[in-house]
Amino acid sequence: MTKFKVSQHILVPKHIKLSEKDKKELLEEYHISLKELPKINKKDPAIQQLDIKKGDVIKIIRKSPSAGEAVFYRVVV
Amino acid sequence: MKVFDEYKEKLPLKIVEEVREATKGMTSDKIKKVFEKVYNEYISSLIDAGESVGLIAAESLGERSTQMTLNTFHFAGVAEMQVTLGLPRIIEVLDGRRTLATPTMEIYLKSPYNKGKDIQKIALSIKETVLDDIADEYSINIVDSTIEITLNKERMKELSLTPSAVLRAITKSSKSYSPKLKDERVILKVKGKEETLNEIYKVKENIKKIHISGIKGIKQVLPVRRKDEFIIITAGSNLKEVFKLNEVDCTRTITNDIFEIESLLGIEAARQAIIDEVSKVLESQGLDVDLRHILLIADTMCVTGNIKGITRYGVVSEKASVLARASFETPIRHIINAALIGERDDLNSVIENVMLNQPIPVGTGLPGLVTTFK
Q1: Between vectors from CA B256 to CA B255 and to CA B257, what angle results, nearest 5°?
Q2: What DSSP string runs through B161-196?
Q3: Do B291 and A77 touch (CB under 8 A)?
Q4: In sequence order, which residues have a C-beta less than 8 Å from that of residue B43 and are 6 or more positions away?
């Protein structure tokens, strides 16, 4: 059987790892520190194929019925 | 076009697309004017800073749920499958309960399996079969201390099982019995220190539960036609094992067990599942709650990376303030614990300031005066 990819499931939105530069810009734009961001577990199945470490920020592009696309950020803990 | 790119940054994607549809064939000057109007309208309809959105969400959902029928049961098709709906289901989802009253899955199949051919066979192969399902009769031979199991041939044919496959399953399940096959009957020799009748009787009760075939936890299967394909609805849920099957379309198969989705597909998928489950219940009751309230609740439950129910063990225990936690449930325990570890309360939120008769940081209470010293 071909290995099933978590990212292909209809419930799973797109997860993208932010670069260090983008991460800094994001925190500056919203005037927040890392620990104020929503969190995501390091072991979360949806981010396993990304090369991640603690403190990385994941950009999540959700499909939203009211806005079309909604962007959300989570920090890896 | 340039205007579209400019407003893509400022407006949600859906609104930009809608304007694009509506302004087809207009000059770019006119489109720009339309965008300006739309943008002003969008800005004025945004929620104000300091608005207590959580309270509004709680009211919107709470008032609606008083209108719900307390116990509704839903029957899908002719073969009845019970699914918790209505208020009990909403409470179950929002409390973050780990054991559900009625776990179910919706299994989608890959083409060509979803065309309906052999659907019954696929469904039955998913259903969990224990020895008791295919056994006709058990008899205990006291002299040899053996148990004889007569198998039901018709049932086995339906499930396409052979007696030797059953034998293998029994052998695999435990080392303490050594089963043998003798003209369509399985003979079990009980090995043990004491071969008393009582002991053998206990073994007989235990072997009834031996797993023979199918997926553990799936108690009932029901093939249903949905639009132009066939899907299988199940009672009992085991997403992990179902994903391993070849016929299953893993991209669409879902369960109503949110914790299972979290462990298999991640927190974002779980958030989406909470939203889907709650809006499904509200829709089935004909209630109209704005989706954004449900989004807020789902986001709150998933903010820590794990699912937290709206209970004193869940989201309330995550609050920074001692007084806020104490004001919800079991106040004395919270205050004693806080005193023991010397917790500090910065009075940053609403409820603790209400207790102390101070302005609350909501609405006009939010902004503070800032002066510059010279």
Answers
A1: 90
A2: --HHHHHHHHHHH-SSEEEEEETTEEEEEEPSS---
A3: no
A4: none
| Residue pLDDT, tens place only, B244-274 | 888 888 899 999 999 999 999 999 999 999 9
The ipTM estimated for the assembled molecules is 0.93
Residue A13: pLDDT over 90: yes
Question: Is the Cβ of B296 closer than 8 Å to some Cβ of chain A?
Answer: no
The first and second tokens of residue B228, run together, are 């132009």
- Helix B267-284 and helix B258-265, axial crossing angle in degrees, nearest 10: 150
- Write down the domain spans for chain A: 11-76
Residue pair A51/A59 in contact (Cβ under 8 Å)? The answer is no
Count Cβ atoms below 10 Å from residue A76 Cβ, excluding itself: 22
Task: Name every chain A residue with its beta carbon within 8 A of the beta carbon of B296.
Answer: none
Domains of chain B: 2-45 (no CATH), 129-213 (3.30.1360), 319-365 (1.10.150.390)
Read off the pLDDT of residues B58-81 as tens digits, 9 standing for 90 and up: 999 988 888 876 655 554 444 456
Average predicted confidence (pLDDT) for chain B: 84
Residue A55 at interface with chain B, using a CB cutoff of 8 Å: no
Predicted confidence at residue B9, as pLDDT, reads: 80
Which CATH number is associated with domain A11-76?
3.90.940.20
Point out the residue among A10, A38, A40 whose CB comes nearest to the CB of B252: A10
